[in-house]
Amino acid sequence: MIVDVTDDCARLALDIVGETLIGGTFGACSYDDNGNRLTQSMLHLTRETFTAKNHEKQIDMNGRHQLDFIDNLIQHRWATSDRTLDFADTKLILFAGSETTATAMALTLLTLAYRNDIQIQLREQLYGLSTFEIIQNSLLDSFIHEILRFWAIAPFITRRSTRDLTCQNSSGRTLLIPNNTDIDILVWSIHRSPLYYIRVDELNITRTYSNKRSYLPFSTGSRMCPGMEFAITELKIIVALLLEQIEFEPLVSISPLDCSQFLSEQQFHIDWYHAVIHTKEHVCLKIRPRLPVFSK
Question: Does the keyword Membrane apply (predicted)?
C-alpha cells in the first residue's frame, strides 16, 4: 500500500510529545475515519516505550514523584523571578518537540526506502534487541547521526550578540559585530561543506564526526537544544520498531548508484520563523507488513 508518511509522522510526533512532555495525548492518531494503519501501528509501537513512566507513579531515589517535563519547567519558573508559563512558552515546547521531529521521521523513512542496503543492515542488527540495546546500538547511532547531518532539519541557528565583537573572515578582513546584533549560523551549509566532510552529498553511515564545531543538528554550547537526547532516542526507537514490522519501498525504482543523488536533490521549504525545513512535496512511500519471524 502507498502511505503519506509526512502526515503520519506529523500526527505521531504530536501525540508522542503530548504524552511524554505534557502528560496527555492530543488524539492526533485516532481521528482518521479510515483507520490509517501505519499511523496507528507507529503510535502503538512507540506509546508504551515513551509513556510508561507517565502512566505509573514512580518514585526517584529521594522519594519524590517524577514530574512531566512541563511540570519541571513550571517549578523552575516559580523558583525564579519569572513565575508565569505563558502561551508562547507552551507553543515553543510543542513545536520543538513535534514539528522538527516529524520532519526528521519522514526524511528518515524516505532514506530507508531508497537506501534498501541500509534498511537491511539495520533490520538484521536490531532484530530481537531490548530497548536499551537498541539505544546503544552503534550502527543505528551512526545512521541517526548521518541522517541529522545529511538532512539539516534546523537549517540555521540564530544568536544575538551581547557585546561588541570583532572577528576575522577567511580572507583576513576584520569584521565588527555590534552589540545586540542577530547572527544566523547556516547549519545546512556547514553540514554540506567540503571543508569539513568528504563526499558531502553522499549519505555515509560510516562517517565520523571528530569536529564538534562542524556538526550542529542541535546547536552547541550552553544554549543547545535541551531536547537532544529525547529526539535522538525517539528516532532510534521508532526506526527499530518500524523496521521490525514494516518494509519501506520507493514509489519509483531507482538504481542504487542514483539513490544518493536523488536524495540530495530533494527540495524543501524553509520556515524562517521557526528555523525548520519542510519537504516541498509530501513524502509518500510503499509499505509492506513483514511476515512474522520465529527464529533469528
Answer: no
HSE (CB half, 13 Å, CA atoms) of 117?
Answer: 8
Tell me the pLDDT of the chain (296 aa) as tens digits.
999 999 989 888 888 887 776 666 667 776 554 445 545 555 555 555 554 444 444 444 444 444 455 555 545 544 554 544 455 556 666 777 788 999 999 999 999 999 999 999 999 999 989 988 999 999 999 999 999 999 999 999 999 999 999 988 878 899 999 999 999 999 999 999 999 999 999 999 999 887 888 999 998 888 888 778 888 988 999 999 999 999 999 998 888 888 888 998 899 999 888 889 999 999 999 999 887 554 44
The answer to whether residue 196 sits within a structural domain is: no
- pTM, two decimal places: 0.80
Q: Is residue 161 part of a domain?
A: no
* Boundaries of domain holding 47: 2-153+205-289
Residue 225 annotated as binding?
Answer: yes
Q: Tally the domains of the chain.
A: 1
